[in-house]
């Protein structure tokens, strides 16, 4: 499967920005999630070596995700070139999460602004892995900013990166790995061995996109009314303070641009955790910093899209396959 033409990247992003992920429309990630859940349960019953079972889980999910995408694109393309082109756009758009990231985080923000902490905690629990019960307002704002910063890389920049390199097949393979990491990539008793391969593969696939994301957030900072110099300074200083080899890069860039401090205490599955501080507490974590983070996310997305379309144009020119 060849990388996409410029119009595919542009229209896929446009669809995501306008419509996001409608709840009434079946989403590939939901199907991938069901597959992971079934394979996790099945392989645990059949394999004594959980690390080996985790490798098989990774291979099966990636093959199914990429293979199904390839079959759909080939089938529609063989039927009618226009149908194949439309299928590529629709599938590519499901790999992007800009609109849904804004929508889900805005629900948390709206509950906070309404003074409804229980609702804010519940809405936050849908988009973060940490325990949200008992979080106070500033801790909720911190969690929202952190997840928007991290998912700017994982949910937008990385899919665009792999879409540009390998088309919808590569982008959907990446989504399969990303979904695996979110479901089994935990360092707890249940998944330490079973999720090891998925977590390491996710680290590998996000290595370059995470660093591109940090650069884009620095470049986006002045356009969003933030400090590019502070974003660059904090990125260089704090990018390696996060437990993840990748998440610290976009979080440090965002923290520097916003003038806030991220990290600190959190709880996962009832187990307390501490992350090193990232950034300096020059401003409070509040509605203003959240809205600035959303602006940074959208501007970084557009900058990445422009870069991806430029690469596609240089490699293949402007071409609509069915014309």
Structure characteristics:
single chain, 323 residues, mainly alpha, two-stranded antiparallel ribbon, 11 helices, 2 strands, 70% helix, 5% strand, globular
Rg is: 20 Å
> How does the overall form come out from the CA principal axes?
globular
* Class of secondary structure makeup: mainly alpha
Biggest sheet overview? 2 strands, antiparallel
Helix content: over 70%
Question: Unreliable runs, pLDDT <50, ≥5 residues?
Answer: none
Query: Between the first and last Cα atoms, what is the distance in angstroms?
Result: 19 Å
- Strand-and-helix sequence, N→C? HHHHHHHHHHEEH
Percent in strands = under 5%
Give the strand line-up of the largest sheet.
Answer: 1-2
* Count of folded domains: 1
What is the arithmetic mean of pLDDT? 93
What is the count of β-strands?
2
Tally of helical runs: 11
Question: Concise description?
Answer:
The chain is built from eleven helices and two strands. By secondary structure, the chain is mostly helical. It has one domain.
């Amino acid at each position: 499967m060849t990388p996409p033409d410029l119009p595919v990247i542009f229209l896929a992003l446009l669809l995501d920005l306008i419509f996001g992920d409608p709840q009434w429309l079946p989403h590939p990630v939901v199907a991938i999630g069901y597959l992971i859940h079934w394979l996790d349960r099945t392989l645990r019953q059949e394999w004594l070596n959980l690390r080996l079972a985790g490798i098989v889980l990774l291979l099966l999910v990636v093959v199914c995700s990429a293979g199904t995408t390839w079959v759909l694109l080939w089938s529609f393309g063989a039927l009618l070139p226009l149908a194949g082109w439309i299928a590529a756009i629709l599938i590519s758009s499901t790999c992007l999460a800009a609109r849904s990231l804004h929508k889900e985080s805005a629900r948390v923000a709206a509950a906070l602004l309404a003074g409804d902490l229980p609702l804010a905690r519940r809405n936050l629990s849908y988009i973060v892995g940490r325990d949200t019960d008992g979080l106070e307002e500033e801790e909720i704002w911190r969690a929202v900013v952190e997840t928007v910063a991290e998912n700017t890389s994982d949910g937008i920049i990385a899919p665009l990166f792999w879409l540009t390199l390998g088309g919808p097949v590569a982008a959907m393979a990446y989504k399969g790995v990303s979904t695996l990491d979110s479901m089994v990539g935990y360092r707890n008793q249940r998944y330490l061995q079973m999720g090891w391969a998925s977590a390491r593969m996710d680290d590998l696939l996000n290595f370059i996109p995470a660093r591109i994301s940090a650069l884009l957030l620095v470049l986006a900072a002045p356009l969003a009314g933030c400090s590019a110099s502070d974003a660059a300074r904090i990125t260089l200083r704090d990018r390696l303070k996060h437990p993840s080899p990748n998440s610290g890069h976009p979080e440090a860039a965002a923290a520097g641009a916003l003038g806030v401090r991220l990290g600190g205490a959190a709880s996962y599955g009832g187990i307390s955790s501490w992350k090193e501080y990232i950034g300096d507490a020059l401003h409070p974590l509040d509605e203003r910093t959240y809205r600035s983070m959303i602006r940074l996310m959208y501007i970084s997305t557009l900058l990445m899209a422009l870069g991806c379309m430029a690469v596609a144009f240089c490699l293949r020119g402007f071409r609509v396959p069915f014309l």
